[in-house]
Design brief:
heterodimer, A: TIM Barrel, 3 domains, eight-stranded mixed β-sheet, eight-stranded parallel beta barrel, 21 helices, globular, B: alpha+beta, four-stranded antiparallel β-sheet, 3 helices, cytoplasm (chain B)
């Protein structure tokens, strides 16, 4: 009997395999009596040795040299004579193996935590080692991402960056999480690795480890207990479709030739080769935060020019939409001293930083202008977090003063979407950041997994706001792009095109599937599907009407 | 007892990679080597956790001690390792 669970698909693709869950930290059992201290110590020692051996095996398998070195350093911490001595003393004092191991690690934990700085950060390593050793003693799987040596589908409540540092894409064929949303770490990781993934899938952790599942990262469907032959046939069909899609190249368009530009989101010149591989028509979002992160001061003019020039040169002859610094909220920058805001997402972020520190913006625009002058790229500049016509007008003036001819604004705030036509008369183009537009339209924090359904890009109210922008673009014959996660959803692409969106910018890996999806529809189809989706009662109904 | 005093040369201190290199070298020594900072209790140089717990930074003076055949040679090479910047050319 198969059982169907439904979540939100965040990275398209169909995979099948046994489901294994991310193992949590084991709880310490109630203390037990120790009769044979020598045997009890041998048990503890063997558990530590198994932890060391397992870390060594993971290090041997790790593709990344840095990851391998970190794992070996962790192994060295567990293979420690002072630690073993501590365990021996505790066992001889009458503690059982799990409690002796817990106590011996705790002694070092206290010293590390008190020392602060680097050592305090290593407390997490000590806790991880302790959890691993206790799991071995209790016969439980070691905490973390399983590495059974064969492909499987990883299930978890949610995934944090620490859980996935050495995730092996050769073994992990797909991801499914109980909570999370389209912009959670799981979704971002899945798209970066090209792993089919479903988030916000209730009930998935009730499935037994090893259950054979068929996961569709496009529709969000997870079928458990499915016949293996049927599942394999389904994945084969899906990979044939994907292969056909990757065979398509050239500019994005519908089957009847209506153009929708397919652009790539990049953070630096490092991402440009991936964009080229996917035949991106340009860059629709060049994020500039990378240059500003993790530093006490602002980057120098020369540094900024060099970083921008690198991307512009690589994209000579094509469009590059560069976004000015989007600091604040989830991306605080030390040199802006933004601490102490009661609600950073509603505080001084994006273009609003220019209210307090206008020179950061003028210096950045000057650097962009200089980098542009030396390359052949078609450079467009845009500001994040614009709410009013006055903000849009002043940004365009600043861009023109710097010598940048094409300037636009991002639509992330409902106020800006509602007045899209006014804004678009003052600027050259609009780019809709759907992640933030969802967050502000639904008053739902992007990091709040429990509200993932509100952040679904298929929410009709969000689509309606996108439609307001698209209509303004059609009336004024100016470009309106989408550069949020919504742009990477192949099923949504025809809907966005039908709403009047003229370019979609996404992670390069997502481009082939979106190109194929557009090529399968006519412009009239797109307009019809857009009308259906906006009129739907909710995101689930909207998806159903369009599929 | 043969003793050497060395100043930690690694930019990140006796942490992370430099600590790993030092501990691995100490484990290979033919004699039992201890390390201490100032008047604090000497700890085994081949214990990663104990060496990390010293919290030695770049410029911290540490004292190495060992006894037995080959102690002088072992201490010389370990002291030299400590004084070297083991982070250099890595990051």
């Amino acid at each position: 009997m198969s059982e169907v669970l439904t979540g939100i698909g965040v990275c398209a693709g169909v995979v099948a395999g046994p489901l294994l869950r991310l193992a949590g930290a084991p709880a310490l059992p109630a203390p037990g009596p120790v009769t044979d201290t020598a045997a009890e110590f041998a048990r503890a020692e063997a558990a530590l040795a198994e932890v060391v051996a397992e870390l060594g095996r993971r290090a041997d398998r790790a593709a990344d040299a840095t990851v391998a070195e970190v794992l070996r350093a962790e192994a060295l911490m567990a293979d420690d004579e002072e630690l073993r001595e501590g365990v021996r003393e505790l066992v001889e004092a009458g503690h059982d193996a799990p409690h002796a191991i817990d106590g011996a690690f705790a002694a070092f934990r206290e010293v590390f935590a008190a020392a602060g700085g680097y050592l305090a950060e290593r407390v997490a390593d000590l806790d991880d080692l302790r959890n691993r050793a206790v799991a071995v003693l209790l016969g439980l799987p070691m905490p973390g991402v399983p590495a059974p040596g064969h492909p499987y589908i990883l299930a978890a409540r949610d995934l944090a960056p620490a859980d996935t540092a050495d995730l092996d894409p050769e073994q992990v064929a797909g991801l499914v999480t109980e909570v999370g949303g389209p912009t959670s770490h799981t979704a971002i990781l899945a798209r970066a690795l090209g792993l089919p993934a479903v988030v916000a899938c209730p009930g998935v952790l009730d499935l037994a480890d090893g259950t054979f599942v068929l996961l569709d990262g496009g529709s969000g469907r997870v079928e458990a207990g499915v016949d293996e032959d049927i599942a394999r046939a389904a994945t084969r069909r899906a990979s044939e479709v994907a292969a056909a899609a990757s065979g398509l190249t050239g500019p994005g368009r519908t089957s009847d030739g209506y153009a929708v530009k397919l652009l790539a989101n990049v953070g630096s010149a490092k991402n440009v080769p991936a964009a080229d591989e996917a035949h991106a028509e340009g860059i629709g979002l060049f994020r500039t935060e990378l240059l500003f992160l993790d530093r006490a001061g602002e980057p120098s003019h020369a540094e900024q020019v060099a970083a921008y020039r690198e991307v512009f040169t690589a994209m000579a002859g094509r469009r590059v939409v560069i976004r000015t610094l989007d600091a604040g909220a989830d991306k605080p920058l030390p040199f802006l001293h933004q601490h102490g805001e009661p609600n950073p997402a509603l505080g001084i972020r994006g273009l609003r930083v220019a209210r307090q520190r206008p020179h950061v913006l003028t210096a950045q625009l000057a650097a962009i202008a200089e980098a542009r002058a030396e390359t052949g790229a078609d450079v467009w500049v845009m500001a994040p977090m614009v709410s009013t016509l006055a903000e849009a007008t002043s940004f365009v003036a600043a861009a023109h003063d710097a010598g940048l001819p094409t300037a636009g604004v991002m639509i992330e705030v409902p106020a800006a979407a509602l007045r899209a036509a006014d804004l678009l008369r003052a600027v050259d183009f609009l780019s809709i950041g759907t992640n933030d537009l969802s967050q502000y339209t639904f008053a739902a924090d992007r990091m709040c997994g429990d509200l993932a359904d509100l952040l679904d890009p298929w929410q009709p109210a969000l689509l309606q706001l996108i439609g307001v922008c698209g209509e303004a673009g059609r009336d004024l014959s100016k470009p309106v792009g989408v550069c949020g996660e919504a742009a990477a959803d192949p099923l949504l692409a025809p809907v966005l095109a039908g709403l009047g969106v003229t370019s979609l910018s996404m992670s390069p890996r997502a481009i082939p599937a979106v190109r194929a999806s557009l090529a399968a529809r006519t412009e009239a189809d797109c307009r019809r599907l857009a009308a259906l989706a906006v009129a739907a009662d909710g995101p689930v109904e909207a998806r159903k009407l369009v599929s | 007892m043969p003793t050497r005093t060395a100043t930690v040369g690694s930019a990140s201190g006796l942490h992370a990679r430099p600590a790993k290199i030092f501990v691995e070298a100490a484990a290979k020594a033919p004699v039992k080597v201890t390390i201490r900072v100032g008047d604090r209790k000497p700890v085994p140089a081949k214990s990663m956790l104990s060496v990390l717990a010293l919290g030695a930074k770049q410029g911290t003076e540490v004292v190495l001690e060992a006894e037995g055949d080959g102690a002088d040679e072992a201490l010389d090479s370990l002291a030299e390792l400590l004084a070297t910047d083991l982070d250099a050319g890595h990051v």
